[in-house]
Every structure is written in structure tokens, then in C-alpha cells.
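ARCHIVE CARD
Drawer: 12
Card no.: 0347
Subject: one protein chain, sequence and derived structure
Cross-reference: see card 0346
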Amino acid sequence: MTALPTRKLEAWRYADLAALGEVWPQAAGAQREIGVAAGETARLDDVLTGSGWRNDEVTISVGAGGRLEGVIDQAGADVTTQLYRVTLERGASADLVVLNHGGRFGRIALEITLGERADFRLGGVLLGSDAQTLEIVTTVRHAGPGATSRQVIRAVAGGRATTSYLGQVAVAREGQQTDAAQSFKALLLNRGATANAKPELEIFADDVKCAHGATVGELDRNALFYLESRGVLPREAQAMLARAFLADALDGVTDAARDAIEARLAALLEAQQP
């Protein structure tokens, strides 16, 4: 980024531009390039912490038949606008998890380009409290035929937090037989919290299967009542339901990362108790 974004830009409509403006301008963040050779497997495990502004760009190329796995954990940098550009060549795959739960303003953006029969899977978790603004922003380009993509994003927000998912799937004319799906669900713990969803499809091919869905709600009172009627304490019942809500976005997460998310979730739920 060379200029401070404005709300006229759709991709920055829900961002905390005031927090970003406090650290602007700054020299460009670190630039990293990662290459995964054809047929090889590599891991990407990033933990983003620190003070000030985290504004790195990571470019990843996965060769034909290669595989990328990993977890991106935005765990506490004050302001984060991290960008990952991933290119998957013919038959390559990527299975990533984004955990976004730290700092005042945390934005993880992914730009994914899929070649022929490439496969991309993303699980994302947003956990917001107080006045945090947390975002996952994705652009998935189906540039070749027969590629597949699955995005499962879950958000839990309390306090005055804002959680947002902006996801675009763009299918080129060459992207015949594309199979793409996006799912976003948000759980609001009180009326001061906010969830935004902006799924978007841009399709230029005529033989595709693309779907997206978004829901925002609160903890199921009937389920809470059922658990409490079986002797489960209210706080424990809330935690059980919230963990179940997040579960399908956490496939492939290591035990350590899952423990950290569950601890953060427990703290968020604790803050909602009278």
C-alpha cells in the first residue's frame, strides 16, 4: 500500500482506518518469497505479534503437484495488514488456517491463484472483544479448469468488536468446471458487537459450481437451556456451544494452536459474564 485507504474502497469499507492512520505512513513491511518445488510439501506457520504496524507481504509459489499446509496466527500485533499471495500450479494444493484474534486492528488478506485442477482450502476464525476490528479478506482466482476451493470462516464477537469477512471468488473464462464454496457464520455475544459479510462471485465461465452463504446470530437459547437442564453450568454451556460453532473451521489445526484459540475464546466468554 502506498496511500492510506479510504472507505470508498470496497475492500476497506469495514476497516479501522483510524487505527491504521495512527501508524501511517511507514516504510513497506518485510517482503518474503517462498517456493515449493513440484511434488514437494511445505509448511507455513506464521505467528504475528509485536507493537506498531505489521505490514508484511508474503509471496508463495507451489509447483505442480506440490502441497502447502500451515497456520497463520494473528495473535497480538497492534495493527496488522498482512498480505499473502499464493499461486498453485497444475494439480497443486494448499490447506491453510487463519486465526485472527489479537491487536486493535487485525487484517489478514489472501490472494490465491489456482491453476488447472489445483485445490485450495481455508479455515478461518475471528475472535473479537472490546473494541477490536478483525478481518479476513480473500480473493480466489480460478485461472485454470477443474480447480476447487473451499472457504469456511467462523466469527465470535463480544464487547464492541467488529468482525468482517470479505471473500471474492473470480472465475476466468479458462476456469471451466470450477467448484467453489464460501461459508461464513458469525456468533454475536451481545448487541454491541458487529459482524459483516461480503461474499462475492465474479464468473466468466459457463460450466461452474459456485456457492456462498452467510449467517449472523446469537447462542441458541434452546440449546443453552437443554445443557443447563442437564446440570451444565451456564458458563460451561456457552463455552461448549461456542467451541462446537468454531469446530468446522479448525480442521488441520495443531493441538497447540487449538489450545490457544480455546483459551482466547474462554477469555472472551468470561468477559461477557455479569
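Annotation on reverse: The chain has a mean pLDDT of 91. The first helix runs from residue 17 to 23.
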